[in-house]
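Re: the 299-residue chain
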Amino acid sequence: MDGVLVVDKPEGPTSHDVVAVARRALGVRQVGHAGTLDPMATGVLVLMVGSATRLARFLSDQPKAYDATILLGVETDSGDRTGQVVSRAAAGTSWPDPGAVRDALGRLHGTHEQLPPAHSAKWVGGARAYTLARAGATVPVRAASVTLHDASIVSYEPPRLRLAIRCSAGFYVRALARDLGRMLGCGATLEALRRTGSADFTLEQAVALDILASGREAAWQHLVPMERLLPRLPAARLTPTGERKARHGNDLSAADLEGTPPRCPPGGMVRLLAGDGRLVGLAGPARPPAVLHPAVVLQ
């Protein structure tokens, strides 16, 4: 059983909890997730099953989409409503007008250095940052380069601001709420978060957790097969000889491919497909006279 399960995670369970439900439902130990969701967050959680776990880094590093509700006037230590309040706007505070909010969001667009919340899943000295923060320890988090592709206002009824967000992997919406609140001078925290998309997967493909938990048949019905993964990558169809060579990790020449070899940019990847369309693996550029070198081979 190989492929991807897209789960609509409810509020409460951790991403690891959802993985455990999938393992029990499928009777398979080899299950992982492509990008964690906080217990408070809901929405798209991509689970990789079987040999799909070998594609983890290619699924995890793709852009994400969110529906976020931000509460102005309050800042918490975790960056969301589950944390302790560290500052609160004074009574009678005038809320920023929509133009000021749009201007502040505009300054956060693009690629920039973002300081993760202290309560994050990043590893710090062998422990999760949130574990250290909850124990009262000082957490030395480092800024990371992230990209905010878009953050548009869905509704604004102060003190609540609802945003539609598209961002890179590794982007913390909680940090966006914190930074936006400080830029507006009133403080802010994340009140609700729903992931609406991850890589090529959306809520339309997602199965509810209780349906997934109902058993193997329900899980199987929602499994996205391997040949439908990573559709954004160009594909190379292998000859029978090419398939044998690819499965042994050997370089591929033009004669091992059916048709014209796809263009593979430096650092890019190409899907390798068997004659019947099955995904054999991923390949990158090879040294001439070969054209492709298998980088990931699936069993």
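The CA atoms of residues 173 and 190 lie 8 Å apart.
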